[in-house]
Specification:
The protein has 106 residues and is an all-alpha fold. It contains five helices and no strands. The protein folds into two domains: 52 residues; 39 residues, no CATH class.
C-alpha cells in the first residue's frame, strides 16, 4: 500500500518537475536570458503565510548551518527540488528484487 503511494506521489512530483522545467525554458526563451523560478517564489505564490512561518521557525529553532542548508533548498530551482523528491519517492516505492528461490532467467 505504501509502496504504491510512494510511487504514485513520486510520479506526480516528477511530472510537476517536468512542467516546471518547460515553464522555465519557455520563460528563458522569451526573455532572452536564463530565467529560473526558485522554490520559495513558487511557494509564496501558493501560500505566502507558509513561507513566513518557515522563516520564523528557522530563525528560532534551527542552528546556523541548518538555516544555511534550508536557504539553499528554498532558493533552488523548483524543477530540481520536485525532481529530486519525486525520484527519491519512486526509488523508495520500487519493488524489492527476490534473490533467493527464483530463477534469474525470468
Amino acid at each position: 500500500m505504501f509502496r504504491f503511494l510512494f510511487r504514485f506521489v513520486g510520479l506526480w512530483l516528477l511530472a510537476g518537475a517536468f512542467v516546471a522545467l518547460v515553464i522555465d525554458g519557455t520563460r528563458s526563451i522569451t526573455a532572452g536570458r536564463l530565467v529560473i523560478l526558485p522554490l520559495v517564489d513558487a511557494w509564496a505564490a501558493i501560500h505566502p503565510a507558509g513561507v513566513e512561518w518557515v522563516g520564523l521557525t528557522a530563525e528560532n529553532a534551527l542552528s546556523p548551518w541548518m538555516r544555511t542548508a534550508l536557504g539553499y533548498v528554498l532558493n533552488a530551482p523548483l524543477w530540481a527540488v520536485l525532481g529530486v523528491l519525486g525520484a527519491l519517492l519512486v526509488i523508495f516505492g520500487r519493488r524489492r528484487a527476490r534473490l533467493i528461490g527464483y530463477s534469474s532467467r525470468d
